[in-house]
Write a structure and sequence with these properties.
The protein is an alpha+beta fold. The protein folds into two domains: about 190 residues, Porin; about 110 residues, OmpA-like domain (60s Ribosomal Protein L30, Chain: A, 2-Layer Sandwich). The strands form two sheets. The protein has an eight-stranded antiparallel β-barrel. A hairpin with a 6-residue loop joins strand 4 and strand 5. The protein starts with 7 loop residues before the first helix and ends with a strand.
Length: about 325
């Protein structure tokens, strides 16, 4: 059975940690592990010794210093301190790896370097895995030198402010004298602490491309069939009024360049309609130039009847709504 002995100082410390977390939660948080950031993390917790060591389970406290090479991968060093005591004092004599009476108090210091891998580094809650190696010093001595340790575990960071996070860990510190883990002793500990982060590069919004400017919407009015004389490229007064309006729009947007595209209905031969669409596009271009628009801003193209806006079931009916929809001149903005 696992034995837990809470002490008053540890309870007070955990209370202060929880109070700090509750106090910091309302602060605005930027959920992100930053590349190039340093982290300092004091913590407290509880350690559970393997029964073979004959040590009382006891609180653990310490600190970590870490550096995040990327948002996902980091390195940290840690120091952990445990003040324990012999569990069963009725056991006497000597046995390798086990503390016995007359030994009473046993102090342990763990020191190790670990690799940390963060999952979901841009989220508010960031789970991670950790593994590393180091050493353990026992006082009273369990060996004539510090013993090797190998540790691994899991945890999570909960960011409560831009540079502050709450952290929990569950670790197995394996103490051994000979690799791979001959006469190894497991020390399971759970801990909670606060992470203070410094420096690093936060994720920034994509920078606009060089020379780019906000693009304003430019809407030009379309010329329809009744803006030209019947079966001709001559522009009617109604059409001229439309083009005068477009001239004002183009003068207000001096960087805009347009392509003037002419279209016709399905009635007539392909060759005739092609030439009519080209003449109407050229007539519109000439009018805009006379209105003060630079020729270099204007190009023309004729599509004839090859790109209808609507299907004409009866091409001979030149007064159908489909035919009128297809006989038009459009303005296509090609540069803003």
């Amino acid at each position: 059975m696992i034995k837990i002995y809470f002490t008053v100082p540890v309870i007070k410390t955990m209370t202060l940690v929880l109070f700090a977390i509750v106090f910091l939660l309302p602060l605005s948080a930027r959920s992100e592990i930053k590349k190039g950031s340093f982290e300092v993390s004091p913590f407290v917790g509880y350690n559970f010794f393997e029964n073979a060591q004959n040590l009382k389970d006891h609180p653990v406290y310490g600190g970590r210093l870490g550096y995040n090479y990327t948002k996902n991968f980091g390195i940290e060093v840690a120091l952990e301190f445990i003040k324990s005591a012999v569990d069963d004092t009725s056991i006497t004599g000597a046995r390798e790896g086990q503390f016995r009476s007359p030994v009473d108090a046993v102090n342990l210091t763990f020191y190790h370097i670990d690799a940390v891998y963060h999952f979901m580094p841009d989220s508010k809650v960031t789970p991670f895995v950790v593994a590393g190696f180091g050493g353990a010093h026992y006082s009273t001595d369990i060996s004539n030198h510090d013993m090797s340790t190998f540790d691994f575990g899991v945890g999570a960071k909960y960011r409560v402010a831009d540079n502050i996070a709450f952290r929990i860990d569950l670790r197995d510190n394996i103490v051994t004298e000979v690799f791979p883990f001959e006469h190894a002793y497991h020390n399971i500990h759970a801990s909670a602490g606060i992470v203070f982060a410094f420096g690093g590069k936060a994720k920034s919004a994509p920078a606009p491309s060089v020379g780019s400017e906000p693009k304003a919407m430019v809407t030009l009015v379309v010329l329809e069939d009744n803006h030209f004389e019947f079966d001709k490229s001559a522009i009617t007064r109604e059409g001229e009024a439309i083009l005068d309006q477009n001239i004002r729009i183009l003068n207000e947007n001096p960087k805009v360049k347009i392509r003037i595209a002419g279209y016709t209905s399905a009635h007539g031969t392909a060759d005739y309609n092609q030439k009519l669409s080209e003449r109407r596009a050229e007539a519109v271009r000439d009018y805009l130039i006379k209105g003060g628009i630079a020729p270099g801003r204007l190009t023309t193209i004729g599509y004839g009847k090859t790109r209808p806006a609507e299907y004409e079931p009866i091409p001979e009916n030149i007064y159908s709504k489909e035919a009128k929809a297809n006989m038009r001149v459009l303005f296509e903005v090609i540069v803003k």
